[in-house]
Amino acid sequence: MADGSASFLVRTYVPADQAGIIRLWEHCGLVSPSNDPKRDIDLKLSFQPGLLFVAESDGRIIASVMAGYEGHRGWINYLAVAPEHRREGLGRRMMGMAEDALRKLGCPKVNLQVRADNQAVVEFYERIGFAVEKRFSLGKRLDSGH
To answer: Which residues contact residue 64 at a Cβ distance below 8 angstroms, ignoring those fewer than 6 apart?
Structure first.
């Protein structure tokens, strides 16, 4: 599918995409010591696997988004666009695909988290209709992770 001057295919993740998606996440700085990307993919594939999307160009994974819905709110994780493909409408397209899939499940609202020091990403989400909400984000690890 074409979007602007770039040509890419947006589709549901398949297992052969694993190495490429992990390279993308590492290249985009989404992998941290507390996030094992292979484990995160395996967990996603065990629950709502149809909500993990990738974009590819010339056989290379250039974008991704992971969505989830637990019956109350939808969540977005791992939205990534290869730096050389940013500003081509790909991030907006990936989010649209995730939002459409969540809507089909009856999801009324979607949430996401952005690292506090990543203002450029906050601005991207604001441009596509998200708003910073006055909430505290709290977390608690339930596994033996970092």
So the answer is: 13, 21, 24, 25, 52, 53, 54, 55, 78, 79, 80, 94
Rounded distance between C-alpha atoms, residue 53 and residue 127, angstroms:
21
User: Contact at 8 Å (CB) between 102 and 67?
Assistant: yes
β-pair type (110-112, 74-81): parallel
Phi and psi based region of residue 89 (left: phi greater than 0; alpha: psi -120 to 50; beta: remaining): left
Cα–Cα distances (Å) from 35 to 25, 93, 107, 123, in that order, read: 11, 25, 26, 24
Output the average pLDDT for the chain. Answer: 91
Query: Which pTM value belongs to this model?
Result: 0.88
